[in-house]
Each structure stands twice: as C-alpha cells, then as structure tokens.
Amino acid sequence: MSGFNKVVHSYEEAMAGLEDNMTIIAGGFGLCGIPENLINQIEKSGVTGLTVVSNNCGIDNFGLGVLLRDKQIKKMIASYVGENKMFEDQLLSGELEVELTPQGTLAEKMRAGGAGIPAFYTATGFGTSVGDGKEVKTFNGRQYILEESITGDFAIVKAWKADKYGNLVFRHTAQNFNPCAATAGKITVAEVEEIVEPGELDPTQIHTPGIYVNRVIQGTFEKRIEQRTTREG
C-alpha cells in the first residue's frame, strides 16, 4: 500500500495491529451490512477480552455471534440482543458484561466520537435505568441526561463500493450504522463488494469520505437473511 491507495489484499493485513482487550466498533443492523469477513478474521486471530460496540451481536454462529461462541468478547455495548441464544446464556451466567443503550443514542455516541465531541445531552433514557448515575440538566423546561461518546481502537464496516482512496458508498438499508461506525475508529477498515478507480464515484453519492478510512479490502459475502417471511400463493 503506497501513497493514497488504501487497498489491502489479505484479511490479515486488513486487521493488522489487532490485540487483546481492544475496543471494536462494528457497523451493521441485524445481519444487514455486517462486515462478516472482518469479523471472521477477528475470530481467526484468537484475540480475547474485546469490548464490542454494535447495534446487536449477530446470531448464533454467524456475524459477531462467532466471537461470542469463542468467548472472545468481554463486554458488549448494544441496543438489541434478542436474536442470539449464546448472548442470553453468557449474560445470565455473568460471563458477558452488557451495556444496553437506546438505538438512537448508540448511533449518536458513534457519530459524536467521530466528530471529536466527548459527550452530549439527550432526553432519551431520562427517568429510566438508562439514566441512572448520569448527570441531568434542564433545557427549556425538559430534563436531559449526559451521554459520553464512543471511539474504538478499530472500526469495521461493510460498504457496497469504494475507490482506492477509501471513499465509501453504502447500498440502501445496508447503510444503517456503518457511516457512524466508520468515523469512530482509530483504525477504520472497510470491506466492500467492488473497488473502483479514483474519480469513478459520484462525489455527491459518497456516504463516508476516505479521510476516515485507513484500509479497504474487496470481499465476497454470504448475505444471509435473518428472518425470512413469505406468504402462500
């Protein structure tokens, strides 16, 4: 990799520098837009003691669920965890520390972290267990709690297209948490379906500028459907 070219050609190179006890921020929503091959590389590396920040934790034996299976996650910061039996078992047994966070607050924690904003006030969670122990301030007669932003040692995201400079385009609902996550890592790695030459992407359609992205790798994806619903006839 030289100059502004951020393309790497192996998942070992993509996740170089990963160590025990790091914080990983992962894009995706359910199984939509998850960086599945980067997750598999984390599993393959054998690192442990991870704090993982993501909307949810995959399903049993797929997505972030593979890191639960191998007991590589120490703490999970997420907004929804209902599709993973291993998650439930590890939470109830005390093996896994969990910090449940309202979905919009989680997205803003990532976005604010990427923007260099250390904390922000939100009304979401005030008067509930989410707000326990947090600073409260009143604005225009309404009470808000102070939430700290999130940054990670690595951010891993999945995009549709990238150019060699790391500019990213996400496809439809696979955008979800990915742009927020991409800004919040000290090292941001994007795996993508297609890599194009600089100048081929419409500048007005770029969701994440390459300034936030350190490494890009082209992958192939299984794209599982989390819950398939059909009708007869």
From TrEMBL:
Pfam families: CoA_trans. InterPro entries: 3-oxoacid_CoA-transf_A, CoA_trans_fam_I, CoA_transf_BS, NagB/RpiA_transferase-like. PROSITE patterns: COA_TRANSF_1. The keyword Transferase applies. One of its GO terms (molecular function) is CoA-transferase activity. Gene3D superfamilies: Glutaconate Coenzyme A-transferase. It comes from the Bacteria. SUPFAM superfamilies: NagB/RpiA/CoA transferase-like (SSF100950). Keywords: Transferase. The keyword Transferase applies. NCBIfam families: pcaI_scoA_fam. Belongs to the 3-oxoacid CoA-transferase subunit A family. This is 3-oxoacid CoA-transferase subunit A.
